[in-house]
Amino acid sequence: MEPSHGTRGRVVMLVDNEVRADSRVQKAARSAASAGWDVVLLGVSPTAKPQSWRLGAARVRLLPKPAHLEPRRHELRHPLLRRPLAYRSRRLARYRVQTVKAWRSDLAFRRAAARAARAGHPGASASGSALRLLLPRACARALGAWVALRARETDRLHRLRTPLTAPLDRTSTAVWSKLMGERAWRRLMPNLWDYELAFAATIDSCEPDLIHAHDFRMLGVGARAAVRARARGRSVKLVWDAHEYVPGLPAFHGRWLPGHIAWEKEHAVFADAAITVSQPLARMLQERHRLPEPPAVVLNAPVMEPDDEEIADAPPLPDLRGLCGIGADTPLLVYAGGISPVRGVETVIEALPELPGVHLALVSVTPGKLKAVATTRSLAEVTGVADRVHFLPFVPHWQVPHFLAPADAAVSPLHHLANHELALGNKFFEYAQARLPLLVSDIRTVAELVEATGQGEVFRARDPEDFARAARAVLAEPGRYRAAYERPGLLDGWTWEAQAGIIDRLYTRLLPDRAAPSVPLSVPSGDSR
């Protein structure tokens, strides 16, 4: 890649997704490029082919990431000790089952062909006689029973192995963690190398001055790239943007958390500076990784001043109430964000029977196509409120506050999880910029802020009755809660424009010889959530 002439320096941003649905990453890349940095954003291609486009002045490149190390070691071993009758893999089991089915189907065809030939139909018998088929048919039945038994054992083995929580698995995980410490991810989660191998050559060819690694997986990839560059004599800076608290994430299996915790711990020491999403998380990260200074807090705030080009290319702003088919006098609650069991949307739906006439708009991703959305629709039907629950598509993220503004109140019904307790998510700031009264569950960080500002009411998570109580209070006096937004300076800091300045100042501190641009900082918008 050509040197970054005429810019303040080359920033390579790394993210472990395909960018289009990650508004924080989009905003960071576009705003940094607008501030004069030569930004290359590298993400993961959803296909086997690379993809590229531009976000404003930032270049986006999606790289294929083969998952050759995704199979876990035990899946490549013979299952003799745990299930001696099981096949080595489920793929082999499926092959054997299908082979027996094909043999029995062919024997049935040969038997039918013999009968048809004897009845005078055209075509010769494939077998000669029914007697000749007697032994093969008996063997096929016996083999089918044997293969079915082994296939069932293979399924049982898979169910036993997948969670990696059996006594043998727990012992193995504990032993590797004890013996290898922060290096244990090499045994527990070796597939993390797939990210390194997919990104390394491209990062090196970009010759970055600064690497901005988004979240925990890319921290390791970025750290290793920075170390390689430093070993070659280039002073590359590494910024770690911690979106989440890894120990608070849901584990997919027994080795997932200890493996990722070790990966993060090994590579955090190489960061020159860190960024995160809230003050509580900043304090925890500094303590956990012994960082020399607390991470800078960059809130997940919305863009409020998109550039003219993006405004021209965006679709017209939809009418929220029009999409719901209701008038201005109908009480309307709104939820914006993904739908999953831990997001708590079911709490709101179960409370609607206690809120006669109140409608709920769920602004979610690709409504009707996600399993969670279908489950939520079914719940609305069972609860008898399907006519008052409206599933709507996302709009470009910089349009969200304006789109939500016609509602009467916004809801954030999250369940109690470690990451929920620590974060201030996109939706909180989007709701605030829409100047909507809030109904939030009693997760710590958000609830404390709402109580301090007077923006809304707090209810007990997963408690429909308490949600209904809070909703009645807000809908009875919405002006009381909207007045909180009149406090001078409150909303000014809750914009991406303000957050972009924090990132730019951090970059400048790490690269002090890079002069700031002579033009004012502008922050273009993104094109998806």
Secondary-structure map:
Elements: E1 10-14, H1 23-34, E2 38-44, E3 51-55, E4 58-63, H2 90-118, H3 130-161, H4 167-180, H5 185-188, H6 192-206, E5 210-214, H7 215-231, E6 237-242, H8 256-268, E7 273-276, H9 279-289, E8 296-297, H10 308-313, H11 320-324, E9 332-336, H12 345-351, E10 359-364, H13 371-383, E11 389-393, H14 400-404, E12 409-412, H15 418-422, H16 426-433, E13 438-441, H17 444-453, E14 456-459, H18 464-476, H19 478-482, H20 496-510
Parallel strand pairs: 1-2, 1-5, 2-4, 5-6, 6-7, 7-8, 9-10, 9-12, 10-11, 12-13, 13-14
Antiparallel strand pairs: 3-4
Helix pairs in contact: 1-20, 2-3, 6-7, 7-8, 12-13, 12-18
Structure characterization notes:
The protein is α/β, with parallel strands linked by helices. The chain has 20 helices and 14 strands. The chain has helices at 23-34, 90-118, 130-161, 167-180, 185-188, 192-206, 215-231, 256-268, 279-289, 308-313, 320-324, 345-351, 371-383, 400-404, 418-422, 426-433, 444-453, 464-476, 478-482, 496-510, and strands at residues 10-14, 38-44, 51-55, 58-63, 210-214, 237-242, 273-276, 296-297, 332-336, 359-364, 389-393, 409-412, 438-441, 456-459. The strands form 2 sheets. The chain has an 8-stranded mixed beta sheet with strand order 3-4-2-1-5-6-7-8, with helices on both faces. Strand 7, helix 9 (279-289) and strand 8 (296-297) form a beta-alpha-beta unit. It is globular and about 95 Å long.
Distance between the termini: 29 Å
Q: Residue share in helices?
A: 40-55%
Radius of gyration: 29 Å
Low-confidence stretches: 518-529
The number of distinct helices, counting runs of at least 4 residues, comes to 20
Q: What is the residue-averaged pLDDT?
A: 91
Using DSSP, what is the number of strands?
14
* Shape annotation: globular
Percent strand: 5-15%
Q: For the report, how would you describe the main beta sheet?
A: 8 strands, mixed
Give the structural class.
alpha/beta
Strand order of the largest sheet: 3-4-2-1-5-6-7-8
